[in-house]
Amino acid sequence: MKVLVAEDNRFFRRLVEASLQQWGHEVLGCEDGSQAWDLLMQDAPPRLALLDWEMPKLQGIEICRRLRALKDRPYVYLILLTAKSRKDDIIKGLDSGADDYVTKPFDPVELRVRLRAATRILELQEDLMAACQAAEQRAQEDSLTGLWNHSAILDILRKELDRSARSGGNLGVILADVDYFKRINDSYGHLVGDRVLRSIGRAMRENLRSHDSIGRYGGEEFLVVLPDCCEGDLISLAERLRKAILDDCARDTQKVLRTMSFGCTCVDGKVAMCLDAIVHAADEALYRAKKNGRNRIEVQLVATDSKCLDVIN
């Protein structure tokens, strides 16, 4: 584990550093609070810090206060080093945000035990964060296809629309629907229908750019968000997706025929647009693609005078 030792007494610092290195830790040492703060503000800060209470430029207790006030930083386990041993000092140190407290001169056995406790706490915290991230991912993921779900893809569209408005760049949107999907379910059963949706989702995702996003909008509909995409690129990407579905069908051992219709719209970031008008334009284009024979691409401009209503997730 990477450990910071901030101590202005060179002899004491080297003594602590030697013990930590002997126990297998990667050690960063510094002699004042300002240096310690800079090391803690790095992109990959030490997971654990031993801070002397009384240091030049910035005291250890003040570092604890400042670090705990930053809510968006990785958690660092903080241990104060000090000769202060009165109860009120211990309370003051812990109240500043320190996780533990070691008095000087330190007992190597005690310090090692406290570091083991710190390691256990940090590992538990990592497990908790991983579980929270996994739960958040599951909440945004469509369980059948593994793509973004309805709410998540609309959130992405909303964010990209805001970014487009700030930068003045173009934003492409595609609403795609599997043609005659009910026939697939009726002819082959819902398990095959589910397999077809998974296969289509995978084929579409593999043929998008790295910064594009795709989600299952509902049933057999997919919503694709294409940042920095002009109308010409939008049509080319939609055609690539259309052909990818045909290729996916050709590889199917059961030869379940599937095609898709695509409704496309493009947003100019220089013109104010709202989310529901964009989705409505893509939906109108999709309806026209269905009406004009399916397995085709249609484009619909967003009506600049359309009234903006919230899209209900």
UniProtKB/TrEMBL annotation:
Q: Which Gene3D superfamilies match?
A: 3.30.70.270, 3.40.50.2300, 6.10.250.690
Q: Which reaction does it catalyse?
A: 2 GTP = 3',3'-c-di-GMP + 2 diphosphate
Q: Name one GO molecular function term.
A: diguanylate cyclase activity
Keywords of the record: Phosphoprotein
User: What is this enzyme's class at the first EC digit?
Assistant: transferase
Coiled-coil boundaries: none
Source domain of life: Bacteria
Location of 4-aspartylphosphate modifications: 52
GO BP:
cell adhesion involved in single-species biofilm formation; negative regulation of bacterial-type flagellum-dependent cell motility; phosphorelay signal transduction system
- Would I find Phosphoprotein among this entry's keywords? yes
User: Pfam families, per this entry?
Assistant: GGDEF, Response_reg
The protein's Enzyme Commission number: 2.7.7.65
Q: Where is the GGDEF domain positioned along the sequence?
A: 169-302
* GO CC term, one of those recorded: plasma membrane
Q: Which intervals hold domain Response regulatory?
A: 2-119
Q: Which PANTHER family match?
A: DIGUANYLATE CYCLASE DGCM-RELATED, REGULATORY COMPONENTS OF SENSORY TRANSDUCTION SYSTEM
This chain belongs to the protein called diguanylate cyclase
In which organism is this protein found?
A: Desulfomonile tiedjei (strain ATCC 49306 / DSM 6799 / DCB-1)
